[in-house]
Amino acid sequence: MNRTPRTLWATLTTAALAIAAFATLGTQAPDTATASSSDPAASAARSADPAAPASRNQQQWPTLRTGAQGSAVTALQQLLTARGHSLTADGSFGGLTAAAVQAFQTEQGLQADGVVGPDTWNALTTTLRTGSQGDAVTALQQLLTAHGHSLTADGAFGGLTSAAVQAFQKNQGLQADGVAGPATWKALVTTPAGARPSTGNTGTGQNATHSTSGYTLKFTKNQNHPMYSTLALVHNGKAVKAYRANSGMGSKDTCLSNEGWLPNGTYKVKGHETNRGEWNYNPNVQIQGYAIQLENKTCTPAPGQMPVTRTDMFIHSEMLADGTQAVDVPLKEDDFWRWDADFDYKSNGCIKLKPADLKDLFTRLDQAGWPKNLALQVS
Predict the structure, then answer these.
(1) Are residues 263 and 362 both part of a single domain?
(2) Fewest CB within a 10 Å sphere: which of 25, 28, 69, 300?
(3) Which residue among 190, 221, 249 closes a domain?
(4) Taking the model in full, what pTM does it have?
(5) pLDDT tens per residue, range 92-136
(6) Cα 66 from Cα 126, distance rounded (Å)
(7) DSSP-derived 3-state class of residue 156
(8) Looking at the domain assignment, is residue 58 inside a domain?
(9) Enclosing H/E stretch for 364
(10) Tally of CB atoms within 10 A around 147
(11) Is the Cα torsion angle 72, 76, 77, 82 positive or negative in sign?
């Protein structure tokens, strides 16, 4: 059939546009191009973290196989352990790790080749947030530490871990919500270990720059699980050591004396003692032994509520004046000057640690010479 020049030109233009569109589809980044993949684990992982920027989604998961070593392998081993395949997290991808990978892949309906690629990573990583516990949290904490956010890898996702996740997310251009979703996991695994956190933020996390030099104590409230709040010793903006802690009897009402936790704000440290009470079983001294005294603080009341000045504020534990424990009284739930178990984190509004942690904190502050301007930040 004969074509007019205009018709021939239109046909050629349409063909060129179709070729360009096909070429564009063929060059999409892997994470985006496979959005319609039949792999349900990969699709679920992508949808679980929708706020991740496109640039981060286009970053490639590392491919791990027998012989690989490093922090990514350690994270892999801990994530496998969290999924029921117990491994020693030694950072070395050997036969046992390969077998665990194959078993996990079989469970997930993936190709059981023992090679950890994008589909296996997406199936392994689980969304973690404040209150999460277990080996997956330990893996998260160790990866964060490898990137310059000093944390105790205790497997408990508390305030310090949340703050470290937020700082890392901000540094990586992700939504800084403190929730470790697939995009955050991918950034942690793919970003070279040793990359330092940004020092330019002004938030309230453990790397906040409002305390960029010297020592500070930081109490971070766990809104979901108050008994799993944290007290950290911070030096030059980084947490040196974090301890499980609590303030109050479980109430979040800062105006409830002897029951609620401490009001937010900064507290001056007025002094410290290792033998408060001066003699054992002093009935007139409720807090004995190792104690750090804080200044008074007035709560910020809710509308219609009267402000209350919180007094007699300490960082303390249950012990005798000489730092030892009282004799255990049979059938008594909580001996007054004896640390019995985890339920002893309750206190009359003060910050409470277990005795060994409080003594460790004293040792570290002794080595630092007990800075004159030492303060406590509560948030």
Answers:
(1) yes
(2) 25
(3) 190
(4) 0.47
(5) 899 999 999 999 999 999 999 999 999 999 999 889 999 998 888
(6) 23
(7) strand
(8) no
(9) helix 355-367
(10) 22
(11) positive
Residues 358 and 221 in one domain: yes
In one letter, which amino acid is 328?
D
- pLDDT digit string, tens, across residues 39-87: 333 333 333 343 333 344 456 888 999 988 877 888 898 899 888 888 8
CA dihedral 273, 249, 206, 242 (to 10 degrees): 60
How many Cα neighbours within 13 Å face the side chain of 370? Answer: 11
Q: Which residues constitute the domain of residue 290?
A: 209-378
CA distance linking residue 258 with residue 313, whole number of Å? 10
Both tokens of 318, joined, read 């249950």
Amino acid code (one letter) for 248: G
Apex CA 213: angle with CA 289 and CA 201, to 5°? 115
Q: Is residue 227 part of a domain?
A: yes
Rounded CA gap, 217 and 231, in Å? 7
Q: Are 48 and 184 in contact (CB under 8 A)?
A: no
- CB-count exposure of residue 278 (10 Å: 0-12, 13-18, 19+): exposed
Whose structure tokens read 């800084």? 176
- Alpha carbon separation from 79 to 39, 75, 109, 145, 265 (Å, rounded): 19, 6, 18, 17, 37
Please tell me whether residue 378 adopts helix, strand or coil conformation. strand
